[in-house]
Amino acid sequence: MASFGISIRPATLADSDAVSALLRDSYPTLMRRAYDRSVLAKTLPFMTVAQPKLLESGSYYVAESSTGAIIGCGGWTRERPDTGEVMAGLGHIRHFGVHTDWTRRGAGRAIYTRCLNDARNAGIQRFECYSSLNGEAFYSALGFVRLGLIEVEMPGGGHLPSVHMAAKI
Predict the structure, then answer these.
(1) Theoretical Cys-Cys bridge with 54: which of 32, 60, 112, 138, CB 3.0 to 4.6 Å?
(2) Is 0.70 topped by the overall pTM?
């Protein structure tokens, strides 16, 4: 899939360093208006690292610019992030990020569209996500609705205030 010079492909373990670099660029910048420094200090070290299990899943994608640079990432799984629970017809949006130079240029939406199409083909009928506070508007624009505020527990004892959201797909 290509959109505005952006192509989407499944991620691999070889993308680990580039995805981590993207998350280290994106999350601190985009989240600083929504969170206290103390919250980010405890949570960002864990959030800005590519997850090997996601990279190997076949349902986690990277967006590349026309030069081949990784400018976005994100995917979906059948497993609920916090429990690993699997429910028929339910998928979970996971670990989205877009390089700050590429926000609002279609990379996130292109990745989501790939997730949506692949999930539908796999029998998924509904998505849930744990959105950061600053990400809620993005997911709302994709058709997600707020189910409630939650605290996502992070390794090391930190908690990230988040928004539990869902969308029928």
Answers:
(1) 60
(2) yes
